[in-house]
Amino acid sequence: MRKFTYISFTLILTLGLYACSPSKNNPAVDLNKAKWVDLSHAYDQSTLYWPNNVKGFEHTEEFKGLATV
Length: 69
Hints:
This protein is mainly alpha-helical. The chain is built from 1 helix and no strands. The chain has one helix at residues 2-20. It starts with a helix and ends in a 49-residue tail after the last helix.
């Protein structure tokens, strides 16, 4: 049983290290050439928050202030 555990650990470690190694076929993404996509939208009275909420959006404050540690 101990030998099986040792072999399993070694196999998982080897595969993990191999998966984290840099690949020549898949270079890192160049963020200088990337394009940003703006996914923001306006939040107003007509914005749908929860489809099953018949009252609409209603903010309820559950806690205000600093949390005690």
